[in-house]
Amino acid sequence: MDCVELFKQMIRLDTTNPPGNEVLMTDLIAEIFEKEGIWHRVQKTGEGRANLIARIGVDSDLPPILLISHTDVVGCENQSWTHPPFAAVEKEGIIYGRGTVDTKHLTAMQLCAMIALKDEQLDRAVYLLATSDEEQGSALGMPKLVEEYGCLLERGLVINEGGGFCITHNEKPYWLCTVGEKGRIELRVIIEGASGPASFKCENKAVDTFSALLEHLASYPFPLIETDVHRRFCDVLGDDITHPFLKHFYTYNSHDAIILQRYDIGTQVNVLPYRIEFELSLQLLPGRSEAEARAMVDALFADMPVTYEVLRFDPGFASDCNNTFYRTMEELARRQYGAQAIIPVYALGRTDGRFLGNLSCDVYGFSPVTKAIPFETILTLVHQVDEHIDRDSIEQGTRFLTDLVGIIGKS
Ligand SMILES: [Zn+2]
User: Fold this and answer.
1) Domain residue extents for the chain
2) Which of 48, 92, 176, 312 could be cross-linked to 186 through a Cys-Cys bond (beta carbons 3.0 to 4.6 Å apart)?
3) Ligand 1: distance of its center to the CA of 42 in Å?
4) CB-based contacts of 229: which residues, under 8 Å, 6+ apart?
C-alpha cells in the first residue's frame, strides 16, 4: 500500500462538515480492508454519514490498541487557497489540502499500519476507528461507535489527534503528546441592578457589578496543582522554560481557568442596562468531580451580587504518562525523529478522545509530524488556509505507528 497515494486520495474526497458526507471515506477504507481481508464494519449514522471500525489481532485480556481519527473536515469559506483544497497538489515534497493535518494524515497512517501488521502474531486486538462529525460536536460519530462497540474498547491504549508535533527547547527538538483533556462546567450568570441614564451617578448599577466581576474573574487566583502531567512536564524540561508556548503549557497543565463565552448587556441607547446576562465556563483539571466543580463556582461568586445556574458539566480525563506504552512512544520518537523526549500536555481543545477517556482508556494525542512542520506552524494550519504536510511525515509516521503497535502488541 503506497501510503502517500492513499493519503492524497483521501484528501480529494470532500468531507466538509456540514454536510459531512463521510461515507466517501468509509467506502474507500472499507474497500481497502475488504481487499486485505481485514474485519471491518461500517456504521451508518445519517444521510451520507458513517463511521467505520476495523480489527486485526486476537481477542485477549490485554488492553486493546485503538487507532482513532475523524474523517470529516472543516469548510474553506472565505479562504483563498494557493492550491485547490481538495486536489492534494504536491510541490517540492509538500502536499496541500484540507485535512492534511486535521486529520486525514492520521487516518491514512493508521490504515497503512493496520495493513502492515495484519499477518503478525499479535497478543491483543488492534482496532481502527474512523469517525464522522467530529468538527461539529461528534453526535453522529464516536459516541455512536462507543454505544455499539464500547465493551470491546475499554481500557484501550489510544492513538488520537492533537499532538505529535515538534517544539524546540534549549535548541533541542521535543515532541508534544496530549495525555488527557480538561473538563468544564458551563454557567449562566445574571446580574440585576439599577439602570437609568448613563451619565447619572447611582448605586448598584448592573454594569458596575459586571465590570467588577470581570476584574475579579480575570485575577482569580487559581492555585497550582501538581498533576502527574505537570510533574512529568517539569522532569523533562526543567524549570528554565523560555519558549512562550511551553510557558503557556506549564500553566495550562497545572491550573484551572475561566473562559468567558458570551455576554449580552442589552441594547438600550444612552441608558444603562439593568440586567446583564453572560455565560462562562470553568476549564477544569482532569479528576475534578461535578460536586467539586460546583464548590469552586460557589467560591468564585461568594459575596458577588449575582445569580447563576449550571448549564452543563463534562468531566476531563487524564492518561498515564509513565506506562510502557508512553515510554515506548518516547523511545521510538528518540530513535526515529531524534526527539530529546516527549513533552506531555493536556489537549488544548476537545477531541473524540473524551468519549474513550471515560471508558478508562489511556488516550494519547500523537499523530507524528516531522520537524519540517513544527508546532508553531501547525497552529497556523489547522482549520486555516493552505493547510499542508510534508510527504516524509506520512511515510515516517506510518513507520512510527507500525513499530509502536508492533512492539506493544507483541510484549
Ligand atoms: Zn481534528
Assistant:
1) 3-173+317-409, 183-314
2) 312
3) 20
4) 179, 180, 253, 318, 321, 344, 345, 346
Q: Which residues does residue 280 pair with via DSSP β-bridges, in sequence order?
A: 187, 260
Query: How many angstroms is it from 365 CA to the middle of ligand 1?
Result: 11
CA of 161 to the centre of ligand 1 (A): 6
CATH of 183-314, one of 3.40.228.10, 2.40.30.10, 3.30.70.360, 3.40.605.10: 3.30.70.360
Question: Using N-to-C axis directions, what is the helix angle for 391-409 and 3-11, rounded to 10°?
Answer: 120
pTM: 0.93
Decide: helix, strand or coil at residue 257. Answer: strand
User: Would you list the DSSP string of 88-134?
Assistant: --EETTEEE-TTTTTTHHHHHHHHHHHHHHTTS--SSEEEEEEES-G
d(CA 53, CA 33): 11
Residues 104, 161 contacting (CB under 8 angstroms): no
**What gap in Å lies between CA 400 and CA 385, rounded to an integer?**
28
Angle at 229 between CA 228 and CA 233, to 5 degrees: 120
Cα–Cα distance for residue pair 320/315, rounded to 1 Å: 17
In whole angstroms, what separates CA 189 from the centre of its chain?
28
* Tens digits of residue pLDDT in 130-157: 999 999 999 999 999 999 999 999 999 9
CA of 282 to the centre of ligand 1 (A): 23
Instruction: Report the separation in Å between the CA atom of 266 and the middle of ligand 1, taken as the mean of its atom positions.
Output: 36
Q: 204-252: per-residue pLDDT in tens?
A: 677 788 888 888 888 888 999 999 999 999 999 998 899 999 999 999 9
Is domain 3-173+317-409 classified as CATH 3.40.630.10? yes
Cα 73 to averaged position of ligand 1 atoms, centre (Å):
7
